[in-house]
Amino acid sequence: MREEKNIDEFLESVFNELPWSDEALDILMRSEPEHTMPEPMKEKLFSKLSEFQKERARVIDKLSHPEKLNSFGEFISLIREKIGDEVEEFAKNIGVAESTVLHLEKNDIPIVKIPLVEMKSLIQKTGINIKTAFSLLRNSFMLYGFKPNYFQSMARFDIKKSSETKKIQSIKRVYEELYLKKMKYKPSEKLEDYLASLEHEIRGK
Amino acid sequence: MKLGANKLDTELPSKRIGFCRNAARQLLQEFKKFYGDIPLPVPIDDIAKFKGYEVHLLENFDDELSALVNPEDKCIMINKKHHPVRQRFSIGHELGHICLGHPPEHDSTKEELKLYNAEADTFAAELLIPLEKLKIEIKKIKNFKSLADIFKVSEQAITIKILEQNLLGKI
Question: Which of A18, A73, A136, B29 could be joined to A105 by an S-S link, Cβ 3.0–4.6 Å?
Answer without folding.
Answer: A73
